[in-house]
Amino acid sequence: MAERRLQVTSRLGLHARAAANLVRVASQFQSTLTLQRLDGNAEADAKSILSILTLAASRGTDLKIVANGVDEEEALDAVIGLFSRDFDETEKVDGEKFTHATSELRCKGLGVSDGVVIGRVLRLQEGTHNVYRAEIAEADLERERRRFRAAVRLSRRQLEAIKDRAEKELGRGHAYIFDAHLLFLQDAKLTRDVEDYIVKERSNAEWAAKVVGDRLLSIYTQINDDYLRERGSDIEDVIQRLLANLTGEVLKYPNLSEDAVIVSTDLLPSTIAELNLKHVKAIATDAGGWTSHMAIITRGLGLTTVVGLRDFYQRTRTGDSIIVDASRGEVILHPAPETIEQYKFTVHDPAPAAVEANAINCGPVVTSDGVQITLRANVELPTEFQAVNDFGACGVGLFRSEFLLSRPGLMSSEAEQYEAYKALTIATGEYGAIVRLFDVGGEFGSDVKDRERNPALGLRAVRFNLRNKQVMRTQVRAILRAAAAGRLSLVIPMVGDVGDVRLAKRVIEEELERLASEKATFAEVRIGAMIEIPSAVLTAEKIAGEVDFFELGTNDLVQYTLAVDRGNDKVSEWFRTLHPAVLYGISRTLEAGRTAQIPVIVCGEMASTPAYAVLLAGFGAIDLSMIPAMIPRVRNVLSQIKAEEAREVALKCLAAATADEVEELVRIEFRRRWPELFPPNALPMAAETVQ
Ligand code: PEP
Ligand code: MG
Hints:
Number of helices: 29
Largest sheet: 9 strands, mixed
Shape: elongated
Oligomer: single chain
Bound molecules: phosphoenolpyruvate, magnesium ion
Structural class: alpha/beta
Distance between the termini: 63 Å
Radius of gyration: 29 Å
Strand content: 5-15%
C-alpha cells in the first residue's frame, strides 16, 4: 500500500470534468485508488465519478490518496501528475461558460405566439417524477434488470449523439459535460446500486433508479461549495433521462412559482395539460416548429412561446432570470439590468383576441360579396370547451381527443371518455362537435425496444386504431353513447385511401350493432375522413363516396407533401405552407368535396392565420376550424373581403413554381387589394418562413 497527500489547487475544485479526467487516469491502473478528505472521514473511489463528486472537494481541500496493488506507485505518480496539471483542462473558460454562463445570452428561435415575458427559468425535462413502486415477482427480477440495462444503453446512445452534435456545433469545450454524463451512466455507484436495489427490494427498475438517484442528489444538496453543488443538476439530468427511457412518464409541477418560464428540450402536450397554467408565464423549448402540437396548444392557451432554440436547455439552470420575446422569436438569459429596463415597457400578454371577444359575433361570417363561411373551433383540452362559445365559434370542428390521455401509454376508460364527449356535446349545442379518433403513434408501445424509428411514418392514427382494435372500440363506443346527448360526429385521422375508411367503418358498424343489442342509449354519427397525406388527396374522389365529410389537415399535408418533419427545428425553413404543391392538394381536395357534395372543413393551422384564411376562401373553402382565440380576427378579415377577389389571388398562386414565388405574390396582391387589413406584419410570411 502507498499513500501521498496533496491539496486541490484548481479554481473550480474537483468538478465534473476534472473528476471525469481523474476517472480516466485512475482506470488505467490495476491498483485500487482511494481519495480521503483530511478534514473528515469522507472518502471516494477514484475510479467512480459519482463517488469523487460526492467528496465535494473544492479548491484548498487537503486530500490523502491511497493506492493498493501491483502498480500502486505508478498509479500514485499518474494521479499526482494530473492534479498538478490542473486535470489537463485546456478549454476551461469556454466550458464553464457553456454550463454556467451568467452574462447576457441571446438565442434566436421561432416565436409561435405573441407576447413578451420577464421571469425565472423552471427547467423541465420530459418523462420523470411520477414513479411508482411495484413489487416484482422473484422470477421476473432478471428481466427487470435487463430492462434497466436497456434503458442505460439507450441513454448512452442518446448522450453520444448529443455530445457529437455539441462538439460539431459548439466545439469540444462545450461537449465535455456530456463526457461526464456518459461516465455517470457507466458508474457502478449508479448502475450497480440500482440493480442491487431491484434484486434486494424486489422493486421495479423505475423506482430503484429514482431511489438511488435521489440518494445521490441529496448528497449533492448538502455540498457547501456553490459551484460543485450546482453540478447536482448534471446527475439529475442523467437520472431524468434514464427514467424517461424507462417510463415515458411526465413530470408534475404542482408548486410552480408565479413567474415560471418553462424551459425544456421538448414538451409533450400531455405535460402542458398537467402544468398549473396559472403559474406558467412562458415556454421556451429546444425543439418544435410552428405546427408542432405543443406550439398549437400553447398558442391556443395564449402562452408566450418560443420554440426551436436548439441547445438552450443545457445553458439554463432553474432560477435563472430570463426574458422570452415571442414577437421576435428570441430569448434572453441572464438579461442585464439595462435590458430588463428596456423590456419593461414592452411586456405584454399575448391574448389580445380575448378583448376583441367581448364584442362577440356568432354564427357564420359573410364576405362582402355574400359568401357564407362557417367558423369552428379546434380544441385539445377539456378546459378549452368553454372558450368555443366565448369566441363565437360554430361549434367544434376538431377535438384532438388524444389529449384526453394523461400520458403516453395510458388509455382512459370508456366511462371517462364518455363523460368528456358528453361535456363537449353539451358545450357546443346546436352546432355540435367533431371528435377525431385517437391520432396517436408509437409511444403506446411503452417498451423502449418497441419505439419506432420513424413514428410520423409509422403505426400512427388510423393505423394504430386498426391494429389496436380494443382501444378503437372503446373510443367509438364512448362517442356513440355521448352522441345521444346532442350533435356529435367522428373523423378518422390520416387515412391513406378508401381502404382505411372501410376498415374503420366496419369497426364502427360492429359497435353500433353491439350497443343496439345491449339496448344501450346511443346515436348514429356522421363519419368523416381527415385528408392530410398525399395519397388521400390524390384519391379524394374515391374516399368522398364513403364518408359524410372531409377534414383537411393542412399541418400534416405540408409535412407529408414536402417531406418535412413538422416538429424538427432543423428543417423548419423547408416547412412552407404556401408551397404550390400544398396549395394544389388543398384545391384538389376542396374540388373533390364539392363534386361529391360533402362538406370540407379546413382545420390545420392555416385556417387560424387571417391571410391564409383569405387564401383558403379563394380556393372555395366555406368551412374553417381554428384556434378559438383566432376566430374574431379571422371573422373580421373575412367579413371585409370579396371571395371573388380572393379567388383571383388563389388562382395566381396555383400557377407559381415555388413557395417564395407564392409568398411574394401574396405580399403584393394583399397589400394592393386590402392594405388596411394586412399591414406588412400581418402577412403570414414573417411568422412562418426562414428565421
Ligand atoms: C393537421 O394535420 O392539420 C391537423 C389538423 O391535425 P394535427 O395538427 O393534430 O395533426
Ligand atoms: Mg394531422
